[in-house]
C-alpha cells in the first residue's frame, strides 16, 4: 500500500515568492522596514511611498506571476524582520485603502498573501497545496471544485499544467494512495471511450453523469459540432 506521505513532493518554485526574486529597489525598503508611523492630517498633493505600499506592490508583482508570498519570507534573510514589526506592518498595510486587493489564505504551514487583481481565491488555494507538498489534497480539491462549480469531471492531464506541473509518475502514485485513504473516498476515476482518464467526486456527481460529460468533452462534441 502506498502511503499518502510517500507522494508528497516539493514544487515551491512554481507558486511561492523567493527572496532572490524581489525587485532590488524594494528589497532596500523591505530590509529597513519599521512599524508604520502616524500620518499627518495635513492634506498632501501626492501620497508618499511607504513601507506598507512597497510591501503591497511586492505581493502584487508575485501574484501577476502566479506566485504567493509566504508570511515567513519576511522573517528570513535578506529581510529578517522582527515578528512584532512584521505584524504591525501587515496590519498597517491592510488598513490602507490602496491595499484593499491584498488578501491572504491560511495554509497548514504558513499564511500566504496574494492580490485579487490578478489571482482568484481558488487559484491561491491550489498554489498553497502545491507549496505545502500535498499532492493528494491538491488533486481532490481540484476535482471537487470542478464537480461542484461547473459541474464537470476533471481531466487528469490538467494536473500536468499550471499551477501543479505534476509529473505523470507523481500523479499515478498520488491516485494509488488516494484509493485507500478515507479522506479521498469520494474521488473516482472515469474514462471516455477514447481512454482519456477523468476524475470526479461522488459528493457532487454520479458515475453516469461523469461518464456522459467526459464522453461529450472528448468525443461527442467533435462528432456533432
UniProtKB/TrEMBL annotation:
InterPro entries: YdhW-like
Top-rank taxon, per record: Bacteria
Name under which the protein is recorded: YdhW family putative oxidoreductase system protein
Taxonomic classification: Bacteria, Pseudomonadati, Pseudomonadota, Gammaproteobacteria, Enterobacterales
Amino acid at each position: 500500500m502506498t502511503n499518502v506521505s510517500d507522494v508528497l513532493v516539493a514544487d515551491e518554485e512554481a507558486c511561492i515568492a523567493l527572496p532572490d526574486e524581489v525587485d532590488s529597489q524594494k528589497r532596500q525598503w523591505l530590509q529597513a522596514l519599521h512599524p508604520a508611523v502616524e500620518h499627518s492630517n495635513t492634506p498632501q498633493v501626492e501620497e508618499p511611498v511607504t513601507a506598507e505600499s512597497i510591501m503591497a506592490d511586492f505581493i502584487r508583482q508575485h501574484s501577476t506571476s502566479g506566485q504567493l508570498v509566504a508570511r515567513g519570507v519576511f522573517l528570513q534573510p535578506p529581510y529578517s524582520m522582527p515578528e512584532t514589526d512584521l505584524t504591525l506592518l501587515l496590519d498597517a498595510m491592510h488598513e490602507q485603502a490602496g491595499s484593499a486587493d491584498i488578501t491572504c489564505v491560511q495554509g497548514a504551514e504558513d499564511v500566504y498573501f496574494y492580490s485579487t487583481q490578478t489571482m482568484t481565491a481558488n487559484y491561491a488555494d491550489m498554489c498553497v497545496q502545491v507549496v505545502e507538498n500535498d499532492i493528494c489534497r491538491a488533486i481532490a480539491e481540484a476535482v471537487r471544485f470542478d464537480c461542484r462549480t461547473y459541474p464537470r469531471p476533471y481531466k487528469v492531464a490538467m494536473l500536468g499544467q499550471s499551477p501543479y506541473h505534476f509529473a505523470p509518475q507523481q500523479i499515478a502514485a498520488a491516485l494509488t494512495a488516494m484509493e485507500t485513504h478515507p479522506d479521498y473516498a469520494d474521488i473516482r476515476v472515469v474514462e471516455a471511450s477514447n481512454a482519456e482518464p477523468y476524475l470526479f467526486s461522488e459528493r457532487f456527481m454520479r458515475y453516469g453523469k461523469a461518464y456522459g460529460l467526459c464522453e461529450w468533452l472528448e468525443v461527442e462534441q467533435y462528432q456533432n459540432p
